[in-house]
Design a protein that fits this description.
six-stranded mixed β-barrel; elongated; 18% strand; 53% helix; 2 domains
Length: 417
């Protein structure tokens, strides 16, 4: 057996000498790792759901528009219209990995029902293209349905879907007639009547309180103008969008257009992600401190109990460096064992909880509870394991240093006692 193997075996026997103390230390490490994995996995699920909802409801994976649209479009929404669909956008529809290319036209105006008049934000959309976004808008039973292909057909009766908050403030229900009044790009006033086909809701109350959607053909008729402000692209996955970005950027640049990924447009999501990242980082720091304190206490007690043994070993020729390495390795063994047990338990518990489902109270406006899950990413599992193992190793440095600094004569006195 090699010298290192003998040394490792000696360290392992010392760790297992006080089984109760070792079990307590391992339990503390494992519990901390499990807590970090479960909480981080829940945050991961929340962020995944929020990201997909933001992409499918608002920004898409990629957006194509004039380069000045994102910086100046809010103050001059009609100053950046693209009147005809450029060839590059048509080619995007046939690009592998692109599921949907949906034109959108945003504008504002006044909506009236009876004596009630409110301001609104509207989106002119292609109902066929928007169907590719899935259930971005939620329509509860009895609240109608989303716009369909027939609503965007030539000669179809004007129809719109309206946010739940805006509908409540207007006192509007499915089937009611609303009057939309806008200022056209030319500066004139125009109005049309639309029938409420459905009342939708999302998890964004501010969006529901002010927004309605109508077919792009009806939006053009209302505004007396053609064109759109942007094309929203939906890809097969969020990861695929980053791979497609250079190719899309190269194609649309030929027509003087620009493209932005969702990461530059989803400001609310990015701020929420940063907040959760800080919270998770704080939990990781707390876990590291708990491990350092626990392992340091365990090894310090071990040094006190084995003072005589340490003095005897040093008297027989063991160097201070070897004593230092022995206690550091014992701390590392405790950390690796606790991190391994905690990671395995955390992954198993996450799988069980996800299979069962975690019921959460329904958000405002919904009567269906949300079933949450725990999504532990490989990065999170590796980080939790590394934090536990490294913290335990670092925790052993001070007790190991104390052991290596013992005076041989003083340590040998403990043997006679």
């Amino acid at each position: 057996m090699s010298r290192f193997a003998l040394f490792l075996r000696s360290c392992l026997r010392n760790v297992l000498r006080q089984r109760r103390r070792t079990a307590i230390a391992l339990s503390a490490i494992a519990f901390g790792v499990v807590a970090l994995l479960i909480s981080g996995g829940f945050i991961g699920w929340v962020l995944d759901e929020m990201r997909e909802l933001t992409i499918r409801t608002y920004v898409g994976h990629l957006q194509v528009a004039r380069p000045t649209f994102w910086s100046q479009g809010a103050s001059d929404p009609f100053g950046h219209l693209i009147q005809r669909s450029p060839p590059s956008v048509e080619r995007l529809r046939a690009t592998p990995g692109v599921l949907t290319v949906a034109p959108r036209l945003s504008f504002a105006g006044l909506v009236s029902k009876g004596d009630t008049t409110l301001s609104f934000l509207a989106e002119g959309v292609d109902p066929v293209a928007e169907a590719g976004f899935g259930r971005a808008l939620i329509f509860m039973p009895g609240r109608g349905e989303n716009l369909g292909p027939a609503d965007g057909a030539p000669g179809a009766a004007p129809a719109a879907v309206i946010g739940q908050g805006l509908a409540a403030n207007l006192g509007a229900r499915t089937g009611d007639t609303l009057v939309l009044l806008v200022t056209t790009p030319a500066g004139s006033i125009n109005a049309i009547e639309v029938r409420v086909k459905g009342v939708f809701l999302t998890v964004n109350k501010a969006f529901d309180d002010a927004t309605l959607r109508l077919p792009l053909a009806q939006a053009h008729k209302l505004l007396r103008s053609q064109g759109v402000q942007s094309w929203t692209i939906l890809t097969g996955s969020t990861a695929a969008a980053q791979d497609l970005l250079p190719r899309v950027r190269q194609q649309v640049a030929q027509d003087g257009l620009a493209v932005r990924p969702w990461t530059e447009l989803a400001d609310t999501y990015l701020k929420t992600e940063a907040l959760f990242a800080r919270q998770l980082g704080f939990m990781a720091v707390v876990l590291a401190l708990l491990i350092v304190l626990g392992i340091s206490n365990t090894l310090t007690m071990s040094v006190m109990e084995r003072t005589g043994e340490i003095g005897t070993a040093m008297a027989l020729g063991a160097s201070r460096r070897q004593v230092l390495a022995q206690f550091v390795l014992e701390g590392a063994l405790l950390g690796l064992a606790g991190a391994t047990v905690g990671t395995l338990l955390g992954l198993a518990l996450a799988a069980v909880l996800s299979a069962i489902g975690i019921p959460l109270p329904p958000p405002p406006g919904l009567d269906t509870p949300i079933i949450a899950a725990i999504r532990v990413s490989p990065e999170l599992a590796l980080s939790a394991f590394a934090i536990a193992a490294l913290s335990a190793t670092l925790a052993g440095l001070y007790p190991a240093w104390r052991a290596s600094r013992l005076v041989i004569v003083d340590a040998l006195r403990q043997v006679r006692l």
